[in-house]
Design brief:
single chain, about 350 residues, mainly alpha, 15 helices, about 65% helix
């Protein structure tokens, strides 16, 4: 059986003697002391270091996007595609730097890469669970959107009732060909790469994998981490609003309202993504949810055309709350050789 490395084995987290004795009693085999695991003296990552590193990574993630023109003095990009490619490179550099910075700060034992990947939530086992379960859970919040889409399709068919659905071989072939063409259009669409690949991947690695590992190693409780890390994630999106305000010359009041809405939405989603990462210990969980939410946009909770959208949204929200903890139970996502059920050893936080 594969043994999953707990975050405790990476971090010298200062805990009370009573709590350590409680953990020792939980395990079938005695766990080594924190001093023995980390190979040194003292506590884990100091709180000021963890907070400073998180703030620095958030600032660097945004600031580097403007470095080509402001620091390197490169000419403005000739096209929107070259503009986004330049930003992809900057986001990739900031992500690699954040991962390396986090690796140096975390008290990793003998530079064991499995320890580091475990802290980042990068692992292959239980991948399908980390993809399917969070995706199904997230999709419940979009029940109203699905109802709205189905109603639109039904209305369109009703308006063109004289048209018959072609279920012949050529008809199905045409539908499949249209689906393939749509998928290829996404592959060659630079904006789709930003929304569904580069953006979610770099943001989850920086704002979840790096920051949450540092904060947990700094001794912050999981609930505190879930509420704290999304603040930086939310503030990091204000640059898009500033750019939009300057380009569209909107009023200050309108820009402020949009900024407030954006802050609220990213704060809520950031908390949810942090919750998924803390609960599952798998980076795939918040990553696929991030991609899915970017694809779907805002959930539909109201429609003037039918009240079924609101009913669907309420039903989906109730189901989401009911299944939130069961579908994110750490037992579903981790191999265990002892009685510890969670990847970060905070077994009793939920």
């Amino acid at each position: 059986m594969r043994r999953f490395v707990h975050l405790e084995e990476i971090c010298r987290i200062p805990i009370t003697v009573a709590f350590e004795n409680k953990i020792r009693k939980k395990h079938r085999s005695p766990i080594p002391s924190i001093m023995e695991v980390a190979g040194g003296s003292g506590g884990g990552v100091p709180v000021p270091v963890a907070i400073t590193a998180c703030i620095a990574m958030a600032i660097f993630y945004v600031a580097i996007l403007y470095s080509p023109t402001l620091i390197l003095r490169l000419p403005p990009p000739s096209s929107f595609k070259s503009f986004l490619i330049r930003r992809f490179v900057c986001a990739g550099i900031s992500t690699v730097v954040s991962l390396l910075l986090c690796a140096f700060i975390l008290p990793i034992k003998s530079w064991n890469m499995s320890y580091l990947f475990s802290a980042y939530g990068i692992r292959l086992h239980h991948t399908w669970e980390a993809v399917i379960f969070p995706l199904c859970l997230t999709s419940l919040m979009y029940t109203g959107s699905f109802v709205h889409k189905l109603f639109s399709i039904w209305s369109s068919c009703a308006e063109h009732g004289d048209r018959q659905i072609d279920i012949s071989f050529h008809g199905l072939k045409s539908v499949l060909q249209n689906l393939i063409n749509w998928m290829l259009s996404l592959v060659y669409n630079i904006s789709a790469w930003r929304m569904y690949i580069v953006g979610p991947l770099t943001e989850e690695l920086v704002f979840r994998a790096c920051m949450i590992s540092l904060l947990l190693c700094g001794g912050f409780k999981p609930y505190t981490v879930i509420l704290l890390s999304p603040v930086l994630f939310s503030l990091a999106h204000l640059n898009h609003l500033l750019e939009s305000y300057m380009q569209q010359d909107s009023s200050l009041l309108k820009a402020s309202m949009v900024a407030g809405f954006q802050l609220g939405y990213t704060l809520i989603f950031g908390s949810y993504a942090s919750f998924l990462f803390v609960r599952t210990g798998h980076i795939a969980a918040p990553l696929v949810s991030h991609m899915f939410c970017n694809f779907m946009g805002l959930p539909a909770f109201f429609s003037r055309r039918t009240w079924l959208v609101s009913v669907g949204f309420v039903a989906g929200a109730i189901s989401f709350v009911y299944l939130l903890f069961p579908l994110t139970s750490p037992v579903l996502y981790n191999d265990r050789t002892d009685d510890c059920k969670c990847w970060h050893i905070y077994c009793d936080w939920s």
